[in-house]
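pinging the channel bc i need a second pair of eyes. not urgent but kinda urgent?? the chain im working w is below, pasted from the shared doc
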Amino acid sequence: MRIGLLGYGKMGRMVEAAARERGHQVLLIIDPAVPVVPNPAAGYPVLCNSIAEAESVLKLVDVMIEFTRPETVVENIKAMVARKVPLVVGTTGWFDKLEEVQRLVEFESASLLWSSNFSLGVNLFYKIVSHAAELFDHFDEYDVGALEVHHNKKADSPSGTAKTLAERILSVMKRKTTVHWDYLPDRPPQPGELHFASLRYGAVPGTHSVFFDSTADTIEITHQARSREGFARGAVRAAEWLLQCPGAGKEAGKPRLGIFTMDDVLKEVL
């Protein structure tokens, strides 16, 4: 595949390494914070400060992978959808605009794959937590709570992964109807509330824990990321799926049209 990167921070650099590791070519990097090379060497990547500057190279790209910031991601999505460039989005903090984006993708017959977390382990963790929550919903003596911890540079709180976990729990536990984020305002949680706390400190890559607790015992399910490499590898694999690329280093096929998530990617495996 010929890949372009929207955003070249820590995650963008890891995605670049993961793409090359899997035999793909990185043609283009778009990031206003990256100095533009006036005469890039043959073989790329071309560095551009904006999407407008990258128009000619965008025509050569099979798929763009986006890791930027919540305040820029929706405009990036709109720009790629308008240009019919398939896009994989790893930025979080914009999901309140998801319905608007979905309508746009469908109207333009575009290709978009998004996830709150591209790690294979996290996506399997979602399924494990969902199944556990469904089981514990039958036993009133067990309450549920959750905690997520990230580094102190993370732009959004709660994390997109935490929001997805809360949605999964609420979808299967009839006893829980709402989620209360962070602190409770000087009162205990109501029976129907799922309390989900967030903590930011240091350089923690990401830890998410769900607790099922009774007076007799506690069951804790935790996913702890050792690094962001799993997110990067998952994003590249998601791009391969979106482009119907049969394997590492293979040529991309015709892109899948519509809006997808990692659930769609895993369906073919599971």
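so The chain has a mean pLDDT of 92. and Helices lie at 10-21, 55-58, 70-82, 98-108, 120-136, 160-172, 229-242, 262-267. — does that match what u expected or am i reading it wrong
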